């Protein structure tokens, strides 16, 4: 069973952008593409830096340090130097509220 936690409002995330939030003690990067929001673990699998400080383009989130890119839907790296995926989390939009669950479905 999934438990969802409200983390922000939809308007807090710029369209085509990313913000970092905490779900409990877990850092989460939220990426917005129109009315869709994706949640990824906010630590690059190649270098221990925040992905939420990177750039979003073409459905990927790019790490600012070495340029590793991660697919926002799957968390899989789309190019080096990262070779390991980052966790993705389930997102629900309830009105203007963005809710995230860390539980595996």
UniProtKB/TrEMBL annotation:
It holds the Pfam family Rieske. Keywords: 2Fe-2S, Iron, Iron-sulfur, Metal-binding. SUPFAM superfamilies: ISP domain. GO terms for molecular function: 2 iron, 2 sulfur cluster binding; metal ion binding; monooxygenase activity; oxidoreductase activity, acting on paired donors, with incorporation or reduction of molecular oxygen. Gene3D superfamilies: Rieske [2Fe-2S] iron-sulphur domain. PANTHER family: 3-PHENYLPROPIONATE_CINNAMIC ACID DIOXYGENASE FERREDOXIN SUBUNIT, FERREDOXIN-RELATED. This is Rieske 2Fe-2S domain-containing protein. It comes from Nonomuraea phyllanthi.
């Amino acid at each position: 069973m999934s438990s969802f936690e409200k983390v922000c409002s939809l308007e807090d995330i710029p369209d085509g952008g990313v913000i970092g939030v905490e779900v409990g003690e877990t850092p989460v990067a939220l990426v917005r593409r129109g009315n869709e929001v994706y949640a990824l673990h906010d630590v690059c699998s190649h270098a221990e830096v925040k992905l939420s400080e990177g750039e979003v383009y073409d459905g990927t989130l790019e790490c600012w340090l070495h340029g590793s890119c991660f697919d926002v839907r799957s968390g899989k790296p789309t190019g080096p130097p990262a070779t390991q995926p980052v966790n993705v989390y389930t997102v629900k939009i309830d009105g203007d509220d963005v809710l995230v669950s860390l539980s595996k479905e």
